[in-house]
Specification:
The chain is mainly α. It has helices at residues 3-36, 39-65, 69-92. The longest helix has 34 residues, at 3-36. The model has no long low-confidence stretch (mean pLDDT 95).
């Protein structure tokens, strides 16, 4: 296994772990927003966060299987940034 492949695999695993953490944070903040604040904002942020994260994480794994390491890292980072941004939006309002 080449160093490039090993580094991409480690990065993909880290991005996936960050996605899980961001998903939990998004779920908690969205539920809190739905129950105490704006129901519409909570639902929209949950849908946008999940809708932005899932295709990107699946695309990252697909890119990794196609040996496209740069695309793997880009999609992996986007996958956890979207739900994190939506969670921060929930916290801000």
């Amino acid at each position: 296994m080449s160093d490039k492949h090993g580094n991409a695999r480690k990065g993909l695993m880290a991005n996936t772990a960050l996605l899980v953490g961001a998903g939990v944070l998004l779920a908690v903040t969205s539920i809190a927003e739905i129950t105490t604040g704006s129901k519409a904002l909570g639902i929209i942020s949950l849908v946008v966060g999940a809708g932005g994260a899932l295709p990107n994480v699946l695309g990252a794994w697909k890119s990794f299987s196609n040996l496209e390491y740069g695309e793997t890292m880009k999609k992996g980072v986007i996958a956890w940034l979207v739900p994190t941004g939506m969670a921060l939006l929930n916290l801000a309002f």
